[in-house]
Every structure is written in C-alpha cells, then in structure tokens.
Fold these 2 entries.
Entry 1:
Amino acid sequence: MNRLRRFFRTPEAIAGANTLALLIVMALAAPLLFPGDPQAIAGPALLPPFQDWSLPLGTDRLGRDVLAELFHGARTSLAVGLAAAAAALLIGAVVGTLAGFAGGLIDEALMRITDAFQTVPSFLLALAFVSIVGPSLGVVVAAIALGAWTGPARVARAEVLSIRERDYVAGARVIGMQPMEIAFREVLPNALPPVLALSSVIVAAAILTEAALSFLGLGDPNRVTWGGMIAEGRAVLRTAPFLSIVPGIALVLTVLGVYLAGEGVVESSAVRRSLS
Amino acid sequence: MTTLLSIRDLAVRYRGDGLAALKGISLDVEAGERLAIIGESGSGKSTLALVIAGLLAWGAKIDGCIDWFLPTDADARGSKDRQASAINSSTPRLGRDIGFIFQDPSSSLDPVMPVGRQIAEVARAHLGIGWQDAFAIAKSLLERVRLPDPDAILRAYPHQLSGGQRQRVAIAAAIAAGPKLLIADEATSALDTIVQAEIVALIRRLVAEDGMTLLFISHDIALAATLADRIAVLRHGELIDLGETNQILDAPRHVYTRALLDAHLGLDAAPLLDRRGAQS
Amino acid sequence: MTVLAVSDLTKRYRRGGKPFAAVEAVSFEIGQAQTLALAGPSGSGKSTIARLVLRLLEPDAGRIEFEGADFLALSGAALRARRAKLQMVFQDPLAAFNPRATVARVLDDPLRIHGIASHTERPHRIAALLERVGLDAGLAQRAIHEISGGQRQRVAIARAIATRPSLIVLDEAVSALDVSVRGRILELLLDLQSQERIAYLFISHDLGVIRAVAHRVVILDAGRIVESGDARAVIADPQSAIGKALVAATPRLNRNRP
C-alpha cells in the first residue's frame, strides 16, 4: 500500500501509469467496441479522419476502419511486448544464475554463448529467425526474446556473484542443501530486483522490435499490428499521411508510457531502500 | 570548567516508524572533558552523536535545544571581555568545530581519492589555505596519528591500507581543521582487540595534546571506562545514569548500569563454566 | 573421545602475485562436549580455519578427521549427509539467513534435507526447537528481519542443533550482540553442551568471552599456532608475543567495589 503511494508520488510515474492503463483498456475493450474482423472493409477507401463520425479516424487504402485497427493493434503490441520480455527475463535470470553460481567451465561456456548472442544485433537475429521459421505470434515472441535475454543474464550473473559469497549461502551449504536448490531457492529470488529493473526497457524494446518486424512484413499476417499499419500507410504517405502518423503516435506513447512507469517503479523502490 | 555545549530536553523522532529515538535528554558537556556515552543497540547513542554533529537533518524530527558556547576568535586571542564574546550560539560547523569519526572508516573515506588529498581537503576547506600548505598539514597529521612512512601513505588509496590504518587516516581527517569537539561513534568496534587498544590510546593522546573535548560513543562500558572522565548511560532513548567514571563503576545508581557492569566478561571475572558448577 | 582432529592444515592464497599462507600447518583436537577456542588478531586465520573445517573452503594440505573418519575424503551426497553432524553459527545473524525467509522455513530446511521428520511432524519439531533455545513457538511465522538480533542468534542456534550435531563451529557468534544478550546466549550454549554433549570450535577475538566458556584455547598469528593450552592458564600467563598483546589490549573494569 505504502509502496503504491510512493509510486504515485512522482509525475513521470503518474503519466506512465495512466498511459499504460489507457493502453490496457484499449486492448481489453477492442473486441467489445469493435467486434468482428478489424481487417474487414468498413467504408470507402482513404477516408480522412474526422469526416465520418462512424469512422472517426478514417479508413485505409482498402477501406478498413483505422480506429478499430488501432485498438486491435494495441492487443498485439502489448501481448508481444509482455510475452517477449517475460521470456527474456526468465531465460536471462536462469542462465545468469547458473553461470554465476556454478562458476568455472559452466560459467565460461554460458557467458561465451551470451557474448555470441550479444555480438549479433538483436534485430538482425529476430529478422533471421522469423524469416526461417515463418511469421506467427509465437515465433515473433521467441525471436524477440532471443535477442533480449543477454542483458538480464549479465545483470543476474553479477548479482549472483556477490550473493554467492554471503553467509546465508554458506549456511545453506552447511545444513547440506543441494547446489541446485541453493541456486534457485536461496540465490535467484534475491538476485531478481536489479534484473526486474530492466523489464521496462526490455518491454519497450520488444514493442518496437515487433513493430519493426511487422513493418517489414514479418509479423503475424492474421493480426493487426501497428507496425503493419505504418507499412500499409507508407505507399500513400504523401496523400494520406495520417495512416502512418496515427499508429506511429500510438507506438511512441506506448513506449514512453512503459519507460516512465518503469522509472517510477525503480524510483519508488530506491526511496524504500534508502529509508530502511 | 566552562561548558562547551548544553543539551536541554532533546527529543528525536524518526519519520516513518514514529518511534522516539531520544527523549528528554538534558546533558552538559564541559570543555576539555572526555565524556563516554554508553548504550546497547537501540539506546539512541548514535542518534545523540549525529544530532550533536548536526548530521540528522533529513527524516528526523528534533525537539528541544542544543546551545553551543564556542570560544570565538576574540577568545582565542585572549580577550578578557567574556560578556561580549563567550556566548556564540551560532551553529557549529562539522569539520571545523566538530570532528567526527565513524565506525567504519572504509565507508567514510572516498575509495577513489588518495588519502592525503582527503585530509588536505578538510584543512583547505576550513582553514582557508592553499593546497600546498594543506598537504603539509596532512603529512604532519599522518605523523601525528603514527602512520609509518607518511609520504607513501599520502599517495595511497584507502583499499591499500589495513582497517586500523584506515581508521588512523579517518582520525587525521577528523582533526585536520583543529576542531574543539571530537566525536568517536563506535570508532573501534570494527577492529580487533589489539588495534582497538592502539586506536583508543591514539585518541587519548590527540585529545590531550590539542585540548579537545571528546565524546566517545560505545557499547563497551569497560573500554569507555579506560578513556572517559565521565560516563553517560543511555537506554531506550533516555539518559538513565550520568556520573564520574569511578562513581559509575563503583557505585552505579541505576540497576541497568549495574547489569551492564555485571555482564562484562573480564579477565578477572569467574568464568561462566565455573559459575555453573561442575555439572557436566 | 575425539570429535575433530585437524593436522597440518594449510591454505595458501596469492595476493598481488605473491603466495601467502592464510593457514599454515595448523593442528588441534577437540573432544566430546569440549570447547576449543581460536583466538588471534584479524587476519590470523581464525575464520579461514572455520571454513576449512566445514568444507566451505578446500585446504591445500593437511587432514581433517571428524568422528574418526577422513572428512576430506567425502564429496557430493555423502558430504551433504555428513554435514548434519557438523554445524555452524555465524557472527551476523542477519546475514546468516536468506533475507526473505521466515523462522519456520529456516528451521524446516535442515529437518527436511536430512529426513529427520516427516512433513506433518515438522511444525511440532520446529516449535520444540524454538522452545529449546528459549524462544516462543509463536515466533515461527515471523520473518527473520522482524525479530531482534538476540532472537535471531537463538534461531541460528536452533537451526544448528536441529540435526543433533556433535560439533558446532561458532564464528564470532556472540561478538555482534549486546552484552546483556551475550551473557544469556553463552549460558544457552553451555546448557546445550552439557545436555547434548556437543563440542564447540569457538572463534573469538575477545579473550574475556573465551575465558568464560572455553576449556582450551589456541592462539593464532599470521596463520600459525603460536600458543595453546588450558584457556585460563594461557590467558593468565601468555607466553607468545601475540598472546601477551591480546591480554594487554583487553579492556579491564577497575572496579574498587568488593
């Protein structure tokens, strides 16, 4: 409770939380407000915004409702962003904990694999992965996570290296606890806070990567995505710029909201730490 | 004896838990005395040290007053006119008027700055002198705290020194500006017995040489008794006993003081093993 | 009966490229229900010896015999099983426990790992352990960070005795406690020793405490044993330079009261 109050003390946290709340409401409300296929034709093609109040943001080249697409696109962006970030954090935390706790050869091997993944630009990795396996929501999530787990892995490893030397880990060994139980029950939960602090950056990056993949036509073809909408609008950028601008603004606001909310969480937990 | 500072009805409450860290403390510290403040964890002894040093500004609510009677420059020049100059209630400056030694020297020293520069900085900031003079002062201070090879130590970083050496450097920095009051807050608790005895001897000598007043904050009544003229005993934020060291040791007024003395395991006490009889 | 026999124990590190011995050819024995104290200034190797004896560190040379068997020969599951008999209490009771743990979980772990009590039986065992160390059984549900330092150290002792060990290593186990709490913890340790026949390897820099509870003392300097013998005799008349310095540095209460 206290923590929540502290969180809402900073203006950036309030702005970020409101933006995210709006986004989540959009995503949840999409099937209620716009039932049916958002990719179905709803009116005349290239209707500009604010002309027809049944189609407030106008229509695209094929006459699809831009507002409906925007709402349904929020679902994809959020789902992919959160799923990819969760997967990246999970993989990173497990790999980092194993490397830091085991040390020696296992650490060497795992960290060289991490290096290998880090030297390839994560977007290229995602691009290659999706091109080979084929675009679908699950593959896009996996492709993004593949390029994003290295950061959490490094942070987790560094934290585990310091926790490993603490008395309570020695204490766990003295009572005969198995190494795997020590690593995942005693060490990992205490190494998580700095890893979770990365989550806002990773979610934001995942949303952008998803948009970029969709822009290149490598998103799930059966779903509306903001990146796909921008790509659609590109052909008529001069005559109907709103088709690219509207999803672009949505993307910017989402990423900004995630960043600000994440910043608020970090700040409120920092205040908490300095008070205790 | 003249009074250096006078504490009246001091109460401190930390924001957050709302518990009183100190309540109703009234205490006079005489100029030139060595006063030990004794207490267990949670007694408020460190809070008292921090309040006196003016280090408690944030997150704490302070009631009551602390009056300072710092000799002014006129005093220092030997003015007879005490009426005009003796009372100077302006707040003292940490570093200039108060030297503070913390328990853990590795957290009070800057890890990425040579120790000579850290000491010189104090002298330069408070004495209005240049770096060259300040470094000369730093070097002589390192000699005074009995560190071997002061030239080498001037250029050393804290991590290159042992715990005892770091505490000596911290003491040198604390006295660099010639403070009237030296506060040692558990300054020897992190050190082993032998180094602890050396640091206590060093503090005793420096305080005598410079005519400083000493506040020695400790949980160890036996250690404090080796150094202090007077002992104040704190418990749960209250001052429960205060007296000359001999009186506190030989005729403690408060039952808690007596319990603290009895709990001391000295080299002359009957071992617990014996007190229990040969039951095993 | 000898519980622990250590001979020629050696541990070397490299510091700035030069090898230096943290522990050099240290030998000692501890009998059943006996307390052997290790004393010495910081850096004398006391804590390193504790960690070597517990196999938290591996020695470079030497033997450790625990209850008549080669303790260094054990590894893996056999070593973990043997650990039940050789326990430890740390200096800082807050650092010695997982910061997220509750008292119940801390005491549940050794009972579970060594199969001492079934799942349904364990809460009763935990309550009995808490009472054994003078704590209220209701404390079990509290988080470790919510209880006082003295209570925490009692929980640490309860965890150490949960597996009915024959030796407990106490690494500065009372140094961080208030003096009034310290006396009661020492009393508890002596009670447990006389009732359960536990031997203690008692590490401390405080000769006053050592003299109060230890039968024998070993004085260390720079990783070597410089003096050993009956605790009271050594402290009354130390022969080594470090022994003399430790005795001289121990604060005394010069009370004139009869």
Note: Chain A has a mean pLDDT of 88.
Entry 2:
Amino acid sequence: MNISKTRHFVYLALFSAMAIVLSIIESIYIGPIFFMVRIGLANIVALVTIKILGVKEMIIVNAMRVVIANLMRGLIFGSTFWISLGGVVLSSVVLILLDKMKSSLMFTSILCSIAHSVGQVIVVCMFYMQPRVAAILPYLLAGSIPMGVITGFTAKLVLSRIKPLRKEHGLN
Amino acid sequence: MCYNQWAMKKKEWMIILVLAAVSVIAIVMMNLKKEKPIENPVSIIYHNQVIQQFDPNVDAVYQVDGDYGGLEVEVKDGKWHVINEKCPNHICAQMGWMGLDDIMPITCIPNGIIIYPGVEE
C-alpha cells in the first residue's frame, strides 16, 4: 500500500471516528428538539466525506456510524438501530443523488435532513406497524429544514478549514 | 467538484419554500380537524392494537406492558403523561403532559406503544 492509499485510509478512519463520536454525543447529551427533531451532527461528517473522499467512503462512514454507535450504546439490532438505519439509508441515497446533480451544499444538507426524518418514519410505519406515527411527518418536515441549515452551514465551515485535504483531493 | 457551491440556487430556494409551505399547511389542517369530545377519547395502542382507552377527565394511572418492559400513563385534570417508562430513550416521558387539544401522539418506539388522542376501532 503506497503513502497516498494509506493517507486516504487514515482519513476514512478519522471521518468514521468523528461520525461515531458525534452520533453518540448527540444521542446521549443532546436530546431531540421539540421531542422529535435532532440536529444531525453526524450528517456534517457525511457531507464533508462525500465532498472530499467520495461516495463509497461516505457510505462506509454512514454504515460505520450506525453500526458502531449503536453497538457501543448496547442498542444493536434493537428498534433504535433499525430506525436510525432507515434514516441513514434514505439520507445517503438523497445525498448521492444530489451530489451527482451538483446541488448546492446547503440544499443537499436540508434535503438529507428531511430524508433522514422521513426514512425513520417509514421504518416505524412499515416495520413496527405504527401508521399513526405518520401524523408527525409535517412537524418533522418543518423541523428538519432549520436543522439542515445548521448542518449545511457547519459543513461549509469545516470544508473551508481543512485546506490540506482539499488540495490533496483536487478541490477548489 | 467545488465545495464553494454551498449557497442555494433559485430553484432550490423554491423547492425548500414549497416543502416548508406544505408542512405548515399540513400542521394547520391537522389542528383544525379536531373531533368532538366523546367518552373515553384517548387510546393506548400497542402494535396497532388498542389495549386501553381512558377518559382524560377521570384521574387514574394505567400500567401498560410493552416490548421493553412497559410504562405507566398518569391521567390528571384532563391531561396525561408517561411515567416509570422502561426504555432507553425516555422521549415519551420527556414529551410531558398532553391534552385533547394536542394532536401529537405520545410515542414509545422501544415499547411499541402510542398514546393517541382519539378512539380507534
């Protein structure tokens, strides 16, 4: 493995670690706002990863985030795990599509935030046979927009501060 | 790929505004569409099955079994809230007191329980 590959692997490990730590911190110390909407701090890492390392790496980071964060909290394969997996899968799909369409970072962040909430509600409605939970979708939709703005703005600040990585990966 | 493209374009603004408008309209519609009060108007649902109905004007504590150990619903002065919940998240208890004017159901996903202001068949 040459130096470039090793460095790439190290960055991937660092982003995964950051996503896991942010996910755990948010779930333990920062509760949902108005009982429903979380900020989605780990989504910042997903946004940064797809812009710097690429799609495949973003999927790895998101998968690691869900599996290891739930494993560390003792919630693996419980309801929390499947619900967060549903949110992450849908938000990852939206993130990949919007990245291919070259949408703006802020728009991508807002739609990913919405997709994350919608994915969670879909899992609850379909797999847990609780269709009445769909009643909270309008509230989630309204709450996800400001949360997406927060994560998008933070991702922009992060991207502008990690110059060595950007230069190495040929970004402006 | 250019990270500088972070500000939203006009089309993107329009999509976000439409989504925000849809959510606001849906919330307003849901709050306007309130049914008349009836006897035992609150249902406790476990995996899509009504396991308990209660009148919020009668003070009581209802114990409900769930997937994670269950919870208790305390009813007082026309309002209800969750106490002694056995689940890892405690979001249901954090939702606090709910009344017939609140459209939001109290939801405990780990236990598979929803406390819903309405009568279910």
Note: The mean pLDDT of chain B is 81.
